[in-house]
Amino acid sequence: MKKSTLFFCTAMLLTAVFSCAPKQSVPTTVEPYAEGKPYTRWWWFASEIQKEDVKYQLEWLKEQGFGGVEIAWVYPMEGDSTVARTKWLSPEWAEPVNYAKQVADSLGLGCDFTYGTLWPFSSYTLPEKYWTRSFYNKKGEADRTITWEHPRMAHILNHLDSEAFDYYAAEMNEGLKEAFKGSKSGVFVDSWEVETRQLWTEGFGEKFYEKFGYKIEPLMDKLYDKGYEDVYYDYMTLMSDYVLYEFYKPFTDNAHSQGAFARSQCGGAPADLLTAFMIVDVPETEAILYEPNYGRIPASAAALAGKDVVTSETFTCLYGWKRWGGKGPYQEQEQVADMRLIADALFANGTNQIIWHGMPFIGKNHTKDENYFYASVYVGRDSYFIDQLKDFNDYMAKVSRYMRKGNTYSDVALYLPLEDSWMGVELPEELQMPWVWGEYELRYEFAPDYLAGYQPLWVNAKVLKESQYADGTLKYGDMQFSTLAIDVEWLDIAALREVVRLAKQGLPVVMSREPKQPGKNKSEEFGKLYAELMSLENVSADPTKILAQKPLIEGENLPDFWCRKDGEELYIFVANPAAKNLKYPLRYGQAFEDEGSQRDITINAKAGAQSLKLTFKPNESIMLKVAADGKVEQIDLGFTAKKI
């Protein structure tokens, strides 16, 4: 995908802006993520931030092959309420922030900002009418203390009310106004960490009645009970609209108004997730609290929306999770080989920019024992893996650059089973975690086995509605698909109408099973539409009758891969088979269980089929270049992780 103007940034060379920055040459442009070099989240614990330490850490990051930082403001270390610190968003607070941005620009590093203190978004001055609430509006629902000014009470904002967001954004924009100058920065919102059960806002009931013709209020206490799945589906349908257009759209628009761009983990949001990821400028997954397969959703969104960069918060809770107040399992003993396993799994599911999770703010004369974040790999000059850090970063940057070439390759559009997730309500107990309960999160979605070797991208009703079928191709933006595959139990009637429209135009459709109509209000039209669809010659439940195009890669027990198409050339990253279907948490040293393996594959290139044997060294993946004439070259990625 060609770089959009969003990601082309001219660093301002005004003397006033860089008066405090170190005296060295300043790049004329700082394009966010341009070189694919990993960023790191940089935790600024509530304290008095010294400029000399800001400069020291940024210079160290550049030496270690990082491409930038995301500053994230968190609580005082260990919740110590006596720690001296500047007032949140005050001019004194902003001074080292502005300086960090200036130094980053002078070094050619990117500088993003978490758009608040900790997460979710909260404010100390937020009027009560803008607080988050459930239908029952329980006391304390909006309270938040683990923030920059801990233990001062902050209040979580109502993410279903754009007016609440605008109030919040005005405060943040004022605090960051100077930091937004210079190169373009991203503003970041983390995964949805707002309570979703019986989530509510003023006017929701009235809009629900208008949309569905029945009152939701008497049913709110039964919303998650068996037998009320149709009601829950209707509730989620309206809730999704609120989340998309009262939060993610205003969040993105606000970033643009400040000369910034919006980066977001939409994971966990009670919404149509594919559309949410398409709204923001830079969609982000995370691993391994979200397992790598989930990354195909933001990667699909990026491809569909014409966005070049897919980021991932990476290495979170690598070996497990421990609540705030202590270090996680094997923290500060991480194996680079284990981290590479995760990074490669992400690359093979569409990520092309790594963001380490992460680096605490540590002064030049301080040690890692003084500041640490409880849920991450530790990045710092005294990291356990310091001898491999630069080489590992260079490796991830190299793969990321290849995975930005041209456009995402696409062949099959695969319908994301959003309706199934909303009708499923709660996950089976064995798939739930302390922070995960609902199927709406779409954490466990995989392509059907018959699509092995293809590179399907997820699509939804919105994409189908805005797509056209012409000249034998389904077209949406720059993406082109030969076939639509649908394997769902439930399908909204609006989506079914679009499938019928496109199929009647000639689109080949695999309709694996007969879906049912979700929601409380049923229509006789649904059955008629399905019958009409299945009467078409180009529609069948049998994929062998529909998939005329061969898969990109054929072979037994295929590893995960991701392909980019640059003109007539293909770049295919094939992850080590040991990186397939990774589960949270990793076993310590899991990567070293891999003894190497081989796969016989055929690449069905445009110039003809090319057969080859892939030999995977232990804990190593493979990058292939397929030339226009079909010749296949293996690219040396130049990195082997060593056991520590």
Task: Please describe what this structure looks like.
There is one protein chain. This protein has 644 residues and is an alpha/beta fold. It contains 14 helices and 29 strands. The protein has an eight-stranded parallel barrel with strand order 1-2-3-8-10-11-12-13, surrounded by six helices. Helix 1 links the parallel strand 1 and strand 2. It is globular, with a radius of gyration of 25 Å.
Can you give me a brief rundown of this structure?
By secondary structure, this protein is of the alpha/beta class. The chain has an eight-stranded parallel barrel, surrounded by six helices. Strands 14-24-25-28-29 form a five-stranded antiparallel β-sheet, with helices on one face. A five-stranded parallel β-sheet has the order 16-15-20-21-22. The radius of gyration is 25 Å and the shape is globular.
Secondary-structure map:
Blueprint: E1 39-45, H1 51-63, E2 68-74, H2 91-107, E3 110-117, E4 122-123, E5 133-134, E6 143-144, E7 154-156, H3 162-176, E8 186-189, E9 199-200, H4 204-212, H5 229-257, E10 261-264, H6 273-279, E11 282-287, H7 296-305, E12 311-314, H8 336-347, E13 353-360, H9 386-402, E14 407-408, E15 412-415, H10 418-424, E16 457-459, H11 461-465, E17 468-470, E18 473-476, E19 479-481, E20 483-486, H12 493-504, E21 509-511, H13 524-534, E22 539-540, H14 543-546, E23 553-555, E24 561-566, E25 569-574, E26 597-605, E27 608-616, E28 622-626, E29 632-635
Parallel strand pairs: 1-2, 1-13, 2-3, 3-8, 8-10, 10-11, 11-12, 12-13, 15-16, 15-20, 20-21, 21-22
Antiparallel strand pairs: 4-7, 5-9, 6-7, 14-24, 17-18, 18-19, 23-26, 24-25, 25-28, 26-27, 28-29
